[in-house]
## 1
Amino acid sequence: MSIYTALRAGVSGLTANSSALAAISDNIVNVNTVGYKRSTVDFSALVNAQNSDTTYNAGGVLPLTRQQISLQGSLEQSRSTTDLAISGDGFFIVSPNSNQLSNGGSVLFTRAGSFTIDAHGYMVNAQGLYLQAWPVNSDGSVISSPTSLSAIEPVNISGVGGLAEASANVDINANLNSDQAAYTGAYTAGDLALGNVSAHFESSLEVYDSLGAPRTISFGFLKTGPNEWQVEVYARPDTNITGGAATGGLLATGEVLYNTDGTVQSVDTGLQNFTIDWAVSTGAAQQDLNLDLRGVAQNAKSFGVTSVTVDGVPPGDLVGLILEGDGFLTAQFSNGRARALYQIPLATFVNPNGLAPDQGGAFRTTLESGLYNINAANAGGAGRVVSGALEASNVDLAQEFTNLITTQRAYSAASRIITTADQMLEELLMVKR
């Protein structure tokens, strides 16, 4: 009887609009949830077989729920550099635990990039999901794969420190007084280092060894002719180098000749490149040093050092993380150096709307979504990773309130169908009485 099918249609209307109300409720309460994707309920008409042209059997309605995953929310600025957002297509690869994905880890995908560093050094978002990335090798290379998770690992910065860099180049700009009287006594290489002969001019500077420790080396200049100077380089204290006590810490010695205009004519090769053999007690490795004395002029003015340039740095502490081009997560250290630690990849899908929702606002693959494709940012259809920003929910609050009113009226109308059908059945029963 058509009245019974009307009852079923009314019940299906109540069920469908209840589902719509639930989806709208989720959307409204998650309007401020980072990376949230709004849910919608589409209605599909059900058709019953008709026995004749003179009667009609109501089919009702079927609710179909889906999430608008591919619709990007607005990017909002954040004060934290570890907050990440994606401008364009793609998802961060995450896991609910810190296991390697190829070794018992569970892979999920999310747009919620409110990442922070936890007590163990892992980058975890507000939902407790661990960010996954390609590690950057010491030579700056990255082993990546568009389909394999074996090269990806959880981002962890615990124990990351700025490595020391040994000094390799020293440039000196100075002046030697041309009015200085030449030394007329007997001179043997090493006399300045041992203190047997007093240098006409001496200056010291610090270089860094392989461990980043500052080491003092001195330069002694002795005029031996009108345009001739003997130069010695020696370590202080002399015990810092192997056998230094016997040689006064001598590292290099040679002659510098000048032109009549005060510029350098030539520098002995032994002064330009030499090796420092640090004593075993220092723990440092042998160190090659290039010395540039072309900036040491000879003019008729007092002795003095204008400038000294020395490379190398001591060890540094981690002071910050920044995101650079193509998703490279770079550590900044207190010694002024920076080093790329990870490259954050993005996963893309043929049909992102086919992904299934999972814990923490993340998604997992389904047959409808297809397999993932892993690419660096700005490559292979993946979007750009933005630091210091978060993707807001794609919920339009005004639209949700409109849908809320519409759903309420539709629910009331469906309930009215049941009331009317019930009254008609009551009338039918009264006929029998």
## 2
Amino acid sequence: MTEGKTKGLQALADKRGVIAALAIDQRSALRKLFAQASGRPAEAIPGDWLVEFKERVSAILTPHASAILLDPEYGFRAARARDSHTGLLLAYEVSGYDKSAPGRLPRTLPGISVEKLKAYGADAVKVLLYYSTRDASAINALKHDWVARIGEECQVADIPFFLEIVAYQEGMGEKGIEFARIKPEVVTRSVEEFCNSRYAVDVLKVGVPVSMEFVESSAVPPSRALYTRAEAIAHFRRASHAATLPFIYLSEGVSNDLFVEALKLAAEANSDFSGVLCGRATWQNGVSIFVQRGPAALEEWLADEGVRNIENVNAHLAAARPWHDRTNGFTRSKG
């Protein structure tokens, strides 16, 4: 852990060393939300809508976040609008994937480099990788090499490297029960793989190791549940034990209440997670407000429900561990 990487991670964490970050680097996913709210095709959504929406979200919610994740395509105004104490992660990957080819292969943004992202003010660089341990070895070899190249680029630039792993399986819907059956294994084995030092990853951003829609609860009867609460906790524990790097949870597009339930399970499992990078669970219900009633109404919604959502997540980070507990970096915190 170099001084530059340590400095970047300190800028992204709170005084305890916990990362309480807001994610709004979505591009294709955000266009889909705008399309649903407006009735327009996703490809017809104006880029200006994305820019303005991100800017308003950043201005109102970053006083409650230790960091914000944005993209260099639509996020620069939002980066400038963030709270002065809020760190900045910038995404390096092209949004989405080529559906005509197998494997959901990743690509970096054309004309962008880690050095450019650092020059733009990033405290860390993030890439998203769709990954399944069950994919063909040739496909995963390409992904392994891609991640390793970015890790090397971040080492040269002396900036933290966040790897977002999105578990999937070709031919399965990520919200379905078939994928829910294999998700614990895919998440845990993916964590094991990318903790390998060849990738030079500093922080893993991962989904929780169960599909929360299938965890037994008052809202999910035993007839529909795939995991009991005890089984879900065991999966959290196994995935945590597989990690030798700091890791944070992403919300995977679930509701705020469901993400909070996941954090409760993580706490019960004594998971060693170092925080969250929470996106749609915080702001997604504001999209229809913005489309139907305009920016002023969005600001009003964000100041009320949006703040309540992010504070609800923050209130469940007491069990999170400082990122530096899993590194040999300095332990000075942002103060």
## 3
Amino acid sequence: MKKSSIVFILCVLVMVPMVLLTLSIKENKAEQQVINAVPEVKDNETRSSEWGKLYPRQYDTYMQTRKSDKIDDVLKEDPALVVMWAGYPFSKDYNKPRGHYYALEDNINTLRTGAPVDAKTGPLPTACWTCKSPDVPRLIKRDGEMEYFTGKWAKYGDEVVNTIGCGDCHDNKTMKLTLTREYLKRGLEAEGRLKVADVTHQDMRSLVCAQCHAEYYFKKTEWEDKGEKKTAMVVTFPWKNGLSVENMEAYYDEIKFSDWTHQLSKTPMLKAQHPDYETFVTGVHSRNNLACADCHMPYVREGGVKYSSHKVGSPLDNIANTCLNCHKGTEKEFRETVEKKLVRKNELAKLATDILAKAHLDAAKAWAVGATEEEMKPALQDIRHGQWRWDYAVAGHGAFFHAPEETLRVLGGAINKGQDARLKLRIVLAKYNAADFVAPDFSTKEKAQVLVGMDYGKLVEEKKTFLNTLKQEWFKKAEEKGIYDPASRKDMTLKTSYN
């Protein structure tokens, strides 16, 4: 072969890949330019599939949250919780959280939301929809915040029909992260550490999560609508004194707030919701300027396109793209380290639940044998504060990952408070010749529910009737209104802890 032919072939072999690479880069740049162009979504669009037509990668990863569909019955795993929450809806039904895809479905199906027969019945207020759907900010915009927070949960059954989605976190015109719940803004202003006007994009990558993953209570608020007096149960963050467990406890004590009075011990109780943000800001990840999205929504690349995965879930599901961006070692080593630490936390949490459940039963016996309010007051305060600490440490499902030292500290406090309560109650019981009282058996969910006087079978039958009637009507009406997104329930099957 002639030398010139060889040179020509070599040139072709070199040039072809370069041409293909150039074309690929141009194609990726063109695609990235289309993404950066930020096409607008219409106002008040709550159907995530409509956003997905313009942002398919983000939408496709978001839809992967439906893979976390397993139901884990926490009350079955730890029956002491039934006793600890006696008289509160969580004693009826409490499962580990599933993916965002199921947030609304699980809210509707849980025994906690009851079995309403119309818009004015059921045990819970409208506020119980607040974190479950982009329909909520739409309704607040339409009806006003006070009207939204007024009435029963079933009032908006045919309006809140799309699960957590794009409209909860993004501005429909600019696609920038935005706060769609005013109560978070009020909470930040009350706490004072971070002013809304000063938040950065990195701050927002945590704050949009804090709209729902934070501790709150329903503040009873009187208002007037065209001369008619109404009562709103407004979602409120207890951050006036700060974000620590002691700060929020002091706030609740100052305003004499309780979520419910315990059915057995008669303690004015506090129920922590899911203080993920509060525990996160105390931990090392926050102190190093990481955001929730850095670990729960890591960036991914497809060719030359970089975007945030919307498959929101545990960082341990994707260690290579989350934890190992900063930490050394292998995935196997990292996972083993975390699991060892979790065993220690779970050991303390289980000890706390056993002590506090028995404290409630000790108190119930003390009341039964004739103890006075004055005699009971110190022990009940310890129960209130001990269970609040325990709940703060475990209700935030990522608490131990966010702030392990703080979580263990708080659990230690819960154990101490619980033991203090039991010692004080032993003195009271001895005074009334009941020092030999032994707490009854609550080793299974069924035994615990019988112990607290719950007619579980009746609750389940009523709920099943609701699921087969009113729930079906809600989605039918929503579809007629054109606000329901069938894609948000694609291939979804009914899964509960009771069917």
